[in-house]
Design goal:
With 256 residues, the chain is of the alpha/beta class. It has one domain: Aldolase class I (TIM Barrel, Alpha-Beta Barrel). Helix content is 45%, strand content 15%. It contains twelve helices and eight strands. It has helices at residues 17-31, 48-54, 81-86, 97-103, 107-120, 132-136, 140-153, 157-160, 181-198, 201-206, 217-223, 241-252; strands at residues 5-9, 38-42, 60-64, 91-94, 123-128, 164-167, 208-212, 231-234. Helix 2 (48-54) links the parallel strand 2 (38-42) and strand 3. Helix 5 runs parallel beside helix 7. The protein binds 1,3-dihydroxyacetonephosphate. Residues 9, 168, 173-174, 212-215, 233-237 line the site of 1,3-dihydroxyacetonephosphate (13P).
């Protein structure tokens, strides 16, 4: 049985301590004792310590939006995995479409970072997703398969089960609405089948696959009963505590 999980990356939308503390406090008050669903928040690096303090004693976990590709050394401007671990992060987001398109991150880098996460006991949330060009050229399946292989191959079989695959169709990020329920259901099923074919059935049954890309309270309601959707990865619509709570509750099916 896969436990549901809902998380939010604040990206660089939240860019001050004031905003971060108001939002973290609101989320802690509303969702701090949530047990049915795993929850995580990924703030910008300098906000992690404060977020950690705000979530102390709650069930809300936190993590980083990225880590460096190397463990230590001359990597100006990068953040080492060891510090992320020492800050007591639980999760690390990897391979986000924005990192790929704006900062030239590659599949190879993601695979190395997954290895670093395993070494340091952090759970990677690995983003995968096709572009609209992939759809036009009828190669979405191939793109997803390649990304899944890179995400999982560099991990031990036991660690693979912990990795979270975040399906984020690139064309659905930053839009007014998420992809349709039918499209998401179909693609999540395909992702699980790809994991089964390239790895094994046990892993495909255990691995959590979450959806991201313009997730709103309405999306959460629609996806709450879709078998292969184990969670949600929220962006802009999670930047108000009330909205984020609504998304979590809708995904639990509470407003049915
Ligand atoms: P939006 O929900 O703002 O589209 O962001 C999605 C996302 O990329 C989450 O990581």
């Amino acid at each position: 049985m896969r436990k549901k999980i809902v998380g939010s990356s604040w990206k660089m939308h939240i860019n001050s301590f004031d905003e971060a503390s108001t939002l973290a406090q609101g989320i802690a008050e509303r969702l701090g004792s949530e047990e049915e669903v795993d929850l995580f928040i990924l703030p910008a690096f300098p906000l992690i310590t404060m977020t950690k303090a705000m979530f102390y004693g709650t069930n809300i976990k936190f993590g980083a939006q990225n880590i460096a590709v190397a463990e230590k050394g001359a990597h100006t401007g990068e953040v080492p995995v060891k510090l992320v671990k020492e800050l007591e992060c639980a999760y690390v987001e990897l391979n986000h479409a924005e990192r790929r398109s704006m900062y030239n991150e590659t599949d190879e880098m993601t695979a190395i970072k997954v290895g670093l996460c395993e070494q340091y006991g952090l759970t990677p949330i690995v983003c995968i997703g096709e572009t609209s060009e992939d759809i036009e050229r009828d190669r979405s399946r191939m793109t997803l398969r390649t990304q899944i292989l890179w995400a999982l191959e560099n991990a031990s079989p036991a660690f693979r089960e912990q990795i979270i695959l975040a399906y984020e169709p690139v064309w659905a990020i930053g839009q007014a609405e998420s992809a349709s329920k039918e499209y998401i259901a179909k693609t999540h099923k395909m992702i699980r089948e790809l994991v089964k074919a390239d790895f094994n059935e046990d892993l495909s049954n255990k691995i959590r696959i979450i959806y991201g890309g313009s997730v709103s309270p309405e999306t959460a309601l629609q996806l709450s009963d879709v078998e292969d959707v184990d969670g949600l990865f929220v962006g802009r619509f999670g930047l108000q505590a009330e909205n984020f709570e609504k998304i979590v509750n809708n995904f639990k099916g509470e407003s049915r």
